[in-house]
C-alpha cells in the first residue's frame, strides 16, 4: 500500500469557511478504513488537489499545520457481536479505559442512543506523547438538546465541567475539534449525551487521534489481532482476477538480487503507484495420485477406514499412520488435541497434503482438559496435567496470566499456575475446552520427506516449535492459510530448515516465544528460497523488550537464505520486526509494513545481509530502518520510514 503525507493548512478560528472541504476530508478518512489500496491512492490524490485549491485562500490567516497521514484511530469500532471491552482485550488496546453507556447500541460503524440514554467513551491519555487530541464525528440524527462533549478525569474524580465540541460543518452536522489542549488528567471521556432528548441520537464513525492531526486510519493497526472470520476480508477468485488484471505491470527483479529465475519472476504485478499483487496460484502444488483420508473430531471413529466423510476417522494420528506418500488428509472443523499421547508422529516422514475444512481447524499440543473445582478456593478450577508451559484461551487466541500460587490464581481473573502435577486456572467461571493447558512437546515436525508437503487451513497452537520443517535438497513446502500461535518458551512459530523452496500465502505467526517465521540453512547445506505473500506476524518474543537486546523477530532469514516478501505486516515484536542476518542473506520486500517493535527496529539487517525495500512502511519504532554493520547494504525505492539508523550503506534504486 502506498503511503503519502499531505501538508494542509486550516484556520481553526474560521473553520466555517472550509466546511465543504472538511466534510469531504472526513468522508475520505472513514472510507479509507475499508477500501482497497487502489481506492485509497485515488482518494488521497483527490484530497491532495482539494487541499491545494483552498490552502492558498488561507495563507494570510492565523494558520495551524495539519498533517493528513496514516495513523491509529483510538475510537474503537468492534465487529457485530463483540463488546467494546472484549474488542479492546482482543486487540490489546492500551488506550481504551472503559465505556459508560445506557440505552445505546452499536453496529455498522454507527452508535444509536435512545431517549434518556448516553454513551461515554473513555481512553487513557497519560501515555500520550503529545498534549493535544483531535476528534471528529458526524451526527446523523439528534435533538437540539443532544450533546457532543468531552471531559478530562483523574483517578476517582472529575476535572472541571464537560466541554462542548464545536459544530465544524453545519450543513453535514460534523462535530469535533482539532488540536484540543490537554491540560490535566489521566483520562479523556468522549460524551454523546441524549438524556434530555425525546428522540434517538445517531452517531456515525467517530474518529479520535492523539495530537493535532487528522489521519487516515490504517485498519492493520487497530485490528491486527482480530482473527475472527478472516475469510471475509480475502478476495474471492473473481475479485482476485480483477485485481491482477488491474495491477498489470510486472515488477522487475532488482539487478543486485542474486536469484533472478525465481518462482515469482514476472508474477509480481504493480499498478505503477507502489501497490503490488501476486499472480500465483499456490494450490496447483498439491500432491496428486493418492487417496484421501477424512478426519472428523465430532462424528469420526478410529475404527473406520477414513476413506469417506461418512466413515471419517476421529484422530489425526491414525490418519497419518494409514496414509502414504501423495495422499491427502482432510480435517473437518474442530479442535484436535493429542490422542493416545500424540498428534503427529515426531519423525514425520511422508509427503502429504494436509488440508483443513475451513479456518476453524485447531491443532493443539495439549490433552483435552477436564476441569474440576478446586476444594477450598472460590474461583479456581484444576486439571491433572504436568509439564504445562502455557494456558491459552483458544476462542480469544490470548494467553492467561501466569502467577505464582494457587491463592494468587483465586484473586486474579484470567490467570493460571502449575505445581507440576496439576494446573489451576481462574476464568471467572467454569472453564470449558477453550481453556487449554499447552504442554512441552512437538506439535508438527518433519524429519524426512520423499518430495514435497502441502498444508492449508490449519491453526497450530503451542509446540516446540509450532511447526518445524527439516527439509533437504529437492524438498519443497507450500502453506496456504496456515497459522502458528503460542509456541512454547524458547521456540518459534514456524521454523523451516533447508530444502529448495517454501511458499507461505496468507499465513500468520503471532504470540510465539521467539520468532514468528524463522528460516535457516539445512543440515545438508541446502538453502530454501522463501516466499511470504500476505503474511502477518505480531507480538512475537515473549520478553516484549524487557530483557535487553534479543533477536526475537516477526520474520527472519539467516545463513545466506534468499527470500521475497509481498504485502506482509509485521509489528509489535520483541526484536526487529523484519530481520535478516549473515553474509549472503538477501531479502526483497514489496509493499510490506513493519511497526512498533519493542526494541525499536522495524526493518533490520546485520552481519553482511542485504535487503531491498519497495514502497514499504515503517513506523512507531525508534528506527524504521536499522542497518547495523558497515558491511550491510539496504536498497530503498519509494516508501515511508520515520527514522533511520544506517551504519552501512543505503542505496536508492
TrEMBL record:
SUPFAM superfamilies, per the entry: Pectin lyase-like (SSF51126)
InterPro entries: Pectin_lyas_fold, Pectin_lyase_fold/virulence
Keywords: Coiled coil
Coiled-coil zones: 37-64
Keyword Coiled coil: yes
Name of protein: Uncharacterized protein
Origin species: Staphylococcus devriesei
Amino acid at each position: 500500500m502506498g503511503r503519502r503525507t499531505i501538508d494542509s493548512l486550516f484556520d481553526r478560528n474560521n473553520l466555517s469557511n472550509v466546511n465543504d472541504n472538511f466534510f469531504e476530508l472526513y468522508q475520505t478518512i472513514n472510507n479509507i478504513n475499508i477500501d482497497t489500496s487502489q481506492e485509497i491512492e485515488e482518494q488521497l490524490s483527490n484530497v491532495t488537489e482539494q487541499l491545494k485549491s483552498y490552502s492558498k485562500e488561507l495563507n494570510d490567516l492565523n494558520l495551524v499545520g495539519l498533517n493528513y497521514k496514516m495513523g491509529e484511530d483510538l475510537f474503537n469500532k468492534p465487529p457485530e457481536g463483540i463488546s467494546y471491552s472484549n474488542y479492546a482485550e482482543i486487540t490489546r488496546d492500551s488506550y481504551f479505559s472503559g465505556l459508560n453507556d445506557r440505552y445505546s447500541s452499536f453496529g455498522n460503524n454507527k452508535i444509536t442512543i435512545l431517549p434518556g440514554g448516553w454513551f461515554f467513551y473513555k481512553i487513557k491519555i497519560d501515555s500520550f506523547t503529545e498534549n493535544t487530541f483531535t476528534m471528529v464525528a458526524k451526527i446523523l440524527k439528534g435533538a437540539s438538546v443532544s450533546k457532543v462533549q468531552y471531559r478530562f478525569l483523574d483517578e476517582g474524580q472529575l476535572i472541571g465541567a464537560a466541554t462542548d465540541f464545536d459544530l465544524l460543518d453545519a450543513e453535514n452536522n460534523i462535530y469535533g475539534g482539532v488540536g484540543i489542549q490537554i491540560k490535566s488528567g489521566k483520562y479523556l471521556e468522549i460524551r454523546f449525551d441524549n438524556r434530555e432528548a425525546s428522540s434517538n441520537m445517531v452517531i456515525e464513525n467517530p474518529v479520535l487521534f492523539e495530537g493535532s492531526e487528522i489521519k487516515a486510519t490504517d485498519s492493520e493497526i487497530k485490528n491486527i489481532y482480530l482473527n475472527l472470520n478472516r475469510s471475509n476480508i480475502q478476495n474471492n477468485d473473481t475479485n482476485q482476477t480483477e485485481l491482477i488484471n488491474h495491477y498489470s505491470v510486472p515488477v522487475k527483479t532488482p539487478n543486485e538480487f542474486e536469484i533472478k529465475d525465481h518462482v515469482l519472476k514476472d508474477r509480481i504485478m504493480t499498478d505503477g503507484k507502489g501497490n503490488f499483487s501476486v499472480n500465483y496460484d499456490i494450490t496447483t502444488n498439491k500432491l496428486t495420485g493418492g487417496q484421501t483420508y477424512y478426519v472428523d473430531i465430532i462424528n469420526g471413529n478410529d475404527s473406520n477406514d477414513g476413506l469417506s466423510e461418512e466413515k471419517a476417522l476421529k484422530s489425526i494420528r491414525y490418519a497419518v499412520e494409514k496414509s502414504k506418500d501423495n495422499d491427502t488428509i482432510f480435517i473437518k472443523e474442530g479442535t484436535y488435541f493429542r490422542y493416545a499421547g500424540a498428534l503427529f508422529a515426531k519423525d514425520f516422514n511422508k509427503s502429504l497434503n494436509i488440508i483443513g475444512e475451513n479456518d476453524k481447524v485447531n491443532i493443539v499440543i495439549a490433552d483435552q482438559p477436564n476441569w474440576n473445582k478446586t476444594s477450598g478456593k472460590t474461583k479456581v478450577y484444576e486439571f491433572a496435567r504436568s509439564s504445562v508451559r502455557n494456558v491459552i484461551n483458544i476462542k480469544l487466541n490470548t494467553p492467561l496470566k501466569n502467577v505464582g500460587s494457587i491463592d494468587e490464581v483465586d484473586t486474579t481473573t484470567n490467570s493460571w499456575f502449575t505445581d507440576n502435577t496439576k494446573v489451576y486456572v481462574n476464568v471467572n467461571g467454569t472453564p470449558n475446552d477453550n481453556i487449554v493447558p499447552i504442554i512441552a512437546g512437538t506439535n508438527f515436525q518433519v524429519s524426512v520427506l520423499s518430495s514435497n508437503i502441502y498444508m492449508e487451513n490449519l491453526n497450530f497452537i503451542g509446540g516446540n516449535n509450532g511447526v518445524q520443517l527439516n527439509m533437504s535438497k529437492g524438498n519443497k513446502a507450500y502453506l496456504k492459510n496456515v497459522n502458528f500461535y503460542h509456541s512454547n518458551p524458547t521456540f518459534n512459530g514456524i521454523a523451516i530448515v533447508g530444502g529448495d523452496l517454501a511458499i507461505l500465502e496468507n499465513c500468520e505467526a503471532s504470540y510465539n516465544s521467539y520468532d514468528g517465521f524463522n528460516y535457516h540453512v539445512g543440515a545438508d547445506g541446502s538453502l530454501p528460497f522463501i516466499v511470504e505473500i500476505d503474511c502477518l506476524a505480531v507480538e512475537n518474543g515473549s520478553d516484549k523488550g524487557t530483557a535487553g537486546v534479543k533477536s526475537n523477530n516477526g520474520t527472519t532469514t539467516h545463513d545466506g537464505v534468499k527470500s521475497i516478501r509481498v504485502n506482509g505486516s509485521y509489528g509489535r515484536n520483541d526484536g526487529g520486526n523484519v530481520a535478516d542476518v549473515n553474509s549472503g542473506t538477501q531479502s526483497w520486500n514489496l509493499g510490506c509494513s513493519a511497526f512498533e517493535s519493542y526494541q525499536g527496529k522495524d526493518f533490520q539487517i546485520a552481519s553482511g545481509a542485504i535487503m531491498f525495500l519497495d514502497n514499504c512502511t515503517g513506523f512507531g519504532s525508534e528506527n524504521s530502518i536499522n542497518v547495523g554493520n558497515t558491511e550491510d547494504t539496504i536498497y530503498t525505492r519509494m516508501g515511508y520510514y520515520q527514522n533511520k539508523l544506517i551504519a552501512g550503506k543505503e542505496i536508492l534504486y
